[in-house]
Amino acid sequence: MILDSASLREILRVRSGHAVRHLANAVAVVAVGALTLLAPGQSGAQTLLDLQSQIESATQALQNSGGSNVDPSDGTADTSLDPEAGDRSEEADEDEDTKRRSATEEDADDQRLGLAGNPSSIERDYALRTGRAISQYGYRVFRQSQRAPITSGEISPDYVLGIGDELIVTYRGQISRTVSVQVNRDGDIVLPETPPIKAVGSTVADLRNRLQQVTGESMVGSRVFVTVGSVRLISISVLGEVFRPGLRPVNSFGTVVDAIGAAGGVLRSGSLRRIELVRANGERIPVDLYDYLIGAGGGATLPLQDGDRIVVPLLGPTVAVDGDVARPAIFETAPGRSSMAVSEAMKLAGGPLRPAGNRIMRIAFDSEGVQSVTSADARSGTLQRGEILQVFIDRNVVGGTIVVEGSVSTPGPRALDDKGSLKSLLSNLDLLSGSPYLPFAVIRTRDPSTLLPLFTPVDLVNVINGNQDMTLASGDRFIVLGAGDITFLSTPPVAEALANSGGACPALASLSSLVRKTRADSFLSARQFLVQGGTSTNAPGSVNCPPIFDQYPTLLPLLLENVTAVTGDVRKPGLYPIAQPVTLRMMLNAAGGLGRSADISQVEISRYDADVAATTTQIRRELLDLTRVSLDSIMVRPGDTVRVATRITTREQGLVSIRGEVLRPGAYDITRGERLSELLARAGGLTSEAYPFGAVFTRDRVRDLERQANRRTADELQKGIVSLLARQSQRSGSSSGMADAMGVMRDLVKDLATVEPYGRVVVEADPAVLAARPELDTVLEGGDAINIPKRPNYVLVVGEVLNPGAQQFRSGQRASDYVNLAGGYSLDSDEGRAFIVLPNGAAQPVDLGSWSTTEANVPPGSMIVIPRDLAPFDFLAVTTDVTRILSGLALTAASLNAIQD
What we know:
With 901 residues, the protein is α+β, with helices and mostly antiparallel strands. It has 26 helices and 39 strands. A hairpin with a 5-residue loop joins β14 and β15. α2 packs antiparallel against α3 and α22 runs antiparallel to α23.
């Protein structure tokens, strides 16, 4: 076999570099075949088969490589050897700018519509009309290359032999040998020791029989076997709208599909349904490749004959099916028709994705070329040329199911039984998980008249016990609340929303808006428990909204409208919604049960009763003694408040600590009304070194009062500083030093507002004195602290003296004597305002004049304070107060440290 003229023309259509390389490859293959002929040890038949196969493969490679430089839009080759290239060059140069601009616009449209590659004009037009990419049906299938020639395997006995077929004849008997012979151009085969035998037009079976007859006559006792070694190649003309029109070599088993594949496939401007196979004798056979695509075969699978022509005409009328179908595409109408039945188009598109619930629209042109959209039926009607059938899923609804959410084992859809009963749904309690709250669940359905969402409360306890049931409808949602959802009702964010302070999540914002728009007492129980009970202040405020309230914001107001408040001595005081009246036992169980100190003889229920026609709401309170009545006989309704009293106890809350010079220091629990003398006796009494006159007694409540008083004083002083300084400036007639004075005053006020008080209380701690004067015996409170120091042997002298510090205590010494021991007064001292702080915390002024006869006694551990003269500041009215307070605080701290040390 040699390269035919069609192959040589194909080589000329590609670029010179590619042609040289591929031709070199072909020559190399031929050389390998020639060397194989000369190689010893192989039969001639096998060598001929291999050589022919390799040459055919090289030819096919040349054909395929030629297609790699083909423009898929029109099938012309991109090569300077194209005979028509010179004629087109001048026209291409003139239109280059116009084509570049048009290509840029088309690329933008293709990207917007999702078109990939190089779409055809008809694909681009349909994409513009549908709004998304849609391709022509079937063209990619025929872009396959020619199938490889058959060189092995059994050939059918019905195969008709032709010129170029190779036969392998094997003799067994008197002579045993194998001969490879080819049907020559005369149509004969020539075998040794037999005359030429006509083979052209005969089937393999007929030729085998004739050879057996001839062999039996000439070689008695021998048998002959005939097989086809390799089949011949035939030349087929493929014309029209294909990528590489012209003569194409295919093997004798080739079909129309093989020939079109050898020609590179059909252009998208060509028809797949109006192809004609023209025989050498003039017979015309119509070929519809859609039959081949759907597996029916037809003319597309007919064997080709040498000299056949395949004509691919231009594309015929088209319609399109788009949307939710298995295979959206552009389809060509059947030969001889310009329309297509809707049912046929839907069949080609694979049908809708869903068997029902589809919406089908038909896009057609009117006489003015304006597109119109109408509804269509998938089982009737006809699509005219250019019309589009669009299929959409009309609804995405699952019937016969409800959705369960919240505190359930597996959230999601559940199938309903024939009756749609909630009781049957809850027959399997494994549906509930975690900590479900059974007294109040919600069914979200739709109002049949308005189709608006409707929340219906339901008591799951009664449903599970068989006392109540509810019919569910398809599409309903069954919401089971959990313990976390119920706990959220009693948190500060809900209290703030009820106080019209907004909220951080949609549910709280919805609740705040509802409270702001209405003045009804729908949330009275919740508001009284949360806002008036101080929940917004005492509890932490950073609480996230549960997901169920984020999903259904209107669910939160529904719960708060139906809450019952449980307060007092229960383990989990809070708000608990109920769908209908429940027993007091169930209500207390929801609140965690009674506390250990609960007084069940004093249980109060506040009911808010209002008849339908009543204009006011009546409050009715019931006091119950649960030792005489059953918890199951008392019903609690939504909106009620249950208060469980605490038994009166003599035990005081908190501990009292005693330190220092007692025999058994530590923390002691106390009873109501217990006094300091009793605590000292429990602690074993005082040691021999104790100094009860210097006892330091602090109390938390006093500390809080001092802190509030200091802040209040600081606020008042802050407001009066400016006016006082202004008056001072007017009196002095000068503003010099006002800025410095203002800074000093602000620092003083800041210190006053931030200083931490000690909460010290002056008490009598000497057991002998307390026994003689019981009225001085202090009643203790939880949190009190007593420190009994050792007897000191010094007296502190602080303030404006030359040598501040501790002086040794000397019995009979006066305050002035201690001042003199400290070096005397400094220049800035104000001895007229001197005072003494006694060891028990009391303070009193002291007259240090030389003629004074009323100078106070100075016990050990006392502190003598000589203040600074404030005259240089000249705003005594303010600084005196501030300085006195700050000095008192500072000196008290120093006194405490000194005594405790």
